[in-house]
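Is zinc ion placement plausible here? Inputs below.
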Amino acid sequence: MGEHTDDMNQDLGTYHVIVELADGRGWIHRYNTAARYTGGTEHVSPLDAHRMTPVWESEERLVSTIVFHFIENNGSCDCNKKRCLAAAAQQDEYDDECGDTMPIAKLTLIRPDGSEKIIYTDEL
Ligand SMILES: [Zn+2]
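Reply from A.M.:
I modeled the complex. C-alpha cells:
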C-alpha cells in the first residue's frame, strides 16, 4: 500500500445544487469536494490506489465549474438533463435524445452549512 496521508487541498464539504428547469421540473445535484482515491484496474489492485487531492480549492472555483457544466458544457444538453431527472426520480429508463429544448431557469447552491446562494438565473 502506498502513502495515503498527503493533503494539499482542504475538503470544502458536501455541496448541493438545486437545478430548476424553465418548465418547473428539476432535481438536486450533489458535489463531493473531498479528496478521493484512484480506482483499481484489471492489473492494479484497488488497495494500491493513490489519493487524489480535491478538485476545487475554493467555493468560487466550484461555482464556476457548476455554472459552466449546466449552462455551456455537457450538462446543458437535453440528454444529460433527462438522465438527471430520471435518476432523481429513481427511474432506470429515460429518453436519451440530445437537444436544446430544456432551458435552465435557476441554479441555487446549497452550502455544507445549509445556507443557499443563487448562482445562475435566466432572469438576468
Ligand atoms: Zn446530449
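Short version: The chain has two helices and six strands.
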